[in-house]
Design goal:
- With 349 residues, this protein is of the alpha/beta class.
- The protein folds into 2 domains: 172 residues, Luciferase-like domain (TIM Barrel, Alpha-Beta Barrel); 175 residues, TIM Barrel.
- Helices cover 47% and strands 16% of the residues.
- It contains 11 helices and 12 strands.
Length: 349
């Protein structure tokens, strides 16, 4: 099992953006010292009240210079928003700077806001994503290549440098819609999953289609990583009291965002988005313990995560320690310490 911290570099009201960066780097410093395996960097655009993490590859390079051991991943780099050849150059360079500690998580984002800011059609996001992925894989693995697609054309180009890791850094794709799971299984790609908009049983059924597709196409058992809000305190009551307002804020906000995107041009089902939005609007704190969040004392959190690991066949967890971004820095830090020193050892047995 690999254990990581999912980070958005949260903004806090009334302080400078530089202070937002400093809080996040302090979190990473503690994670490095406590033996956490990975920090996972989100990508967020045009949302100053929530996050300052719009350039995850630049931030990852800074982390690689400040740390010696911890792995650094993107969760996720939104491929359709950039030039895929440029992204491949930056990833390969980062892989050298970190001496092979980089993991390349990719996706297309479940919400259209960033696309609107970049004046790119969200309805094209699926096509753009898979075209970009194909280009990046060719750039990583071929000495020179040419490509003529719907959105990008290249003639006899040579990616320089080639990645430090061979053939390239580990790649992992965010899977959200039901049709994406078997497609990624056919490709043999490791995946990220989440349980915010669906039940654990629903996601388990999606993962089953992924594993079936892996087997049909002669791939190994694959790899599944779960992003999940986690809060650990010395007592379960304290953990519940600390995290309820912030964690529930995140669920309800996502429900509202999905609802507002239903009428917009998208690359996937408006019906599925509407259903997920309705479920998120109706969730209750007492019903999501061990289902969509892991909250409690170290023993309880370990038990909840063990159930998720078994149900989904996980080999990686990206714990979201400040879901909803309203937990005070000191409380997030204590939760991280307890997770690394008392939860992680239980799950590593």
């Amino acid at each position: 099992m690999e254990f990581g911290s999912f980070m958005e570099f949260h903004a806090r009201e009334g302080r400078s953006q530089n202070a937002d960066f400093q809080e996040a780097f302090n979190h990473i410093d503690i994670a490095e010292k406590l033996g956490l395996d990975t920090v996972w960097l989100a990508e967020s655009h045009f949302n100053p009240s929530r996050s300052v993490l719009s350039a995850p590859l630049i931030v990852a390079a800074a982390i690689s210079g400040k740390t010696e051991r911890i792995n650094i991943g993107t969760a996720v780099q939104v491929l359709p928003l950039g030039n895929p050849l440029r992204i491949a150059e930056e990833v390969a360079t980062l892989d050298h700077l970190s001496e092979g500690r980089f993991q390349f998580g990719i996706g297309r984002s479940g919400l259209p806001g960033a696309y609107e800011g970049y004046n790119i059609s969200y309805g094209e996001s699926r096509e753009r994503f898979f075209e970009s992925l194909e280009i990046i894989q060719e750039a990583f693995t071929k000495d020179r290549f040419s490509y003529s697609g719907k959105f990008h054309q290249y003639e006899d180009v040579c990616l320089t440098p080639k990645p430090f890791q061979k053939p390239h850094p580990p790649m992992r794709v965010a899977a959200t819609t039901s049709e994406t799971f078997p497609l990624l299984g056919e490709m043999g790609m490791p995946i990220f999953v989440g349980v915010r908009g669906l039940t654990l049983a629903d996601v388990s059924a999606q993962v089953k289609t992924y594993r079936e597709a892996l087997a049909r196409n002669g791939h190994s058992n694959g790899s599944v990583s779960l992003r999940v809000p986690v809060h650990v305190a010395e007592s379960t009551k304290k953990a519940l009291d600390n995290s309820e307002t912030s964690f529930m804020k995140q669920f309800h906000r996502l429900g509202s965002q999905l609802g507002s995107s239903v009428g917009k041009e998208t690359a996937d089902s408006g019906t599925e988005r509407s259903e997920r939005s309705s479920r998120l609007a109706e969730i209750r704190w007492e019903t999501i313990q061990g289902e969509k969040v892991a909250v409690g004392d170290p023993e309880k959190v370990a038990d909840q995560l063990s159930r998720m690991i078994e149900e989904l066949g996980l080999d990686s967890i990206a714990a979201e320690f400040n879901a909803g971004e309203d937990l005070p820095e000191s409380i997030v830090e204590e939760s991280l310490r307890l997770f690394c020193t008392k939860v992680k050892p239980r799950l590593s047995l």
